[in-house]
What does this fold into?
Amino acid sequence: MPAPFLDELRDWLPSNDDPVRPLIALSTVTPGGYPDVRHVLLSEFTDEAFFIHSDARSRKLAQLAVSPRASFAIAWPELARQLVVVADVEPAPDDEAASVYRRRSYYLQVLAWLNDDDFAALELAERQRIWAEFEAAHPAGTLTPPPTWTGVVLRPRRVTFWHGHPDTASQRTEYTLTEGGTWLTTVLPG
Ligand SMILES: Cc1cc2nc3c(=O)[nH]c(=O)nc-3n(C[C@H](O)[C@H](O)[C@H](O)COP(=O)(O)O)c2cc1C
It folds into this structure.
């Protein structure tokens, strides 16, 4: 049975072919049990899952390897909307990650190759010089993903749609995945 929130999700999120990707606040858990949050692009979503992409050497991916659970939030204050998702996490297939890389801007494709600890530690002028050299050697349209380019699948367990109203109280519609694999719908105060 398809999740009961898919229509609303498709209405709220831009389609996967929209080059402007939504920015989500993604929370993972440190080995010490602290939540750790940062913004990432929501690369795409399907009827079953959300996908993000990051560097295999990143802190978030080390955390997810130990604790494969995450949540994310995104708000559209001007539309009085917030979406919150709690999810189980697993690696994305290589072909999915490669297809997202092809759709990233040239800047982000270059960034995925150069953005590491050693590069970050260089002076600005040196970073600019290396970046320009890299671009000269790898023009737009020629790049393939670096080995560190990694996709992450977020399979939702709880999806909450927050609706604000100018003339009455805000309200949430929450969908929770049950043990039996069906979605339980609950209405909550905002
Ligand atoms: C607008 C914006 C978009 C970003 N998009 C991504 C992204 O899609 N993937 C990613 O790994 N980091 C992205 N970042 C950088 C992350 O916020 C973060 O600094 C980086 O991934 C390191 O996080 P970590 O040390 O917790 O792993 C983005 C940052 C900003 C401000």
Observations:
- Strands lie at 23-29, 35-41, 44-45, 50-55, 69-76, 81-91, 149-165, 168-177, 183-189.
- Residues 23, 38-41, 53-55, 58-60 surround flavin mononucleotide (CB under 6 Å).
- Residues 124-137 form the longest helix (14 residues).
- DSSP finds six helices and nine strands in the chain.
